[in-house]
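We emphasize that the prediction below concerns an isolated chain of 147 residues; any contacts that depend on oligomerization or on bound cofactors are therefore not represented. The input was used exactly as deposited, without trimming of termini.
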Amino acid sequence: MEFWRHGVLITCLISWFTAQLLKVIFTLIKDKRIDFRRFVGSGGMPSSHSSFVTSLATAVGLERGFAGPEFAIATVLALVVMYDAAGVRRAAGQQARILNKLVAEWEKSDYAKTDKRLKELLGHTPKEVFAGAVLGVIIALMRHFWF
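Result of the prediction step, given as a token string:
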């Protein structure tokens, strides 16, 4: 039972789960439909990647101290993941969107020659990354002080 109470990994999983659940809820509100693919898919509001790694850094800081090397490692990891989510992966998604449009115009929406459409929703906007980061910190604080 101690693992459940103080487990940094459990905090991270709760944070990831909450972010993914919020994506389903926001899609339901916006599109008036339930899309369970949003629960396991990448991209969208809030960033579950950001939530996952910021909850890790925050939980490690709260458990082991904010001056130790564990917190530094977790923070650097969080910054790399969030930069990747808002930078490289977002750019790849934008390129996929443009390539899909080009293929659709060139082949009249026949993707037989290209196997399939490229996945467009890969990365996050800075706002989605920030929201995920805030969510991760909140979840870690709640787990540390109340659960």
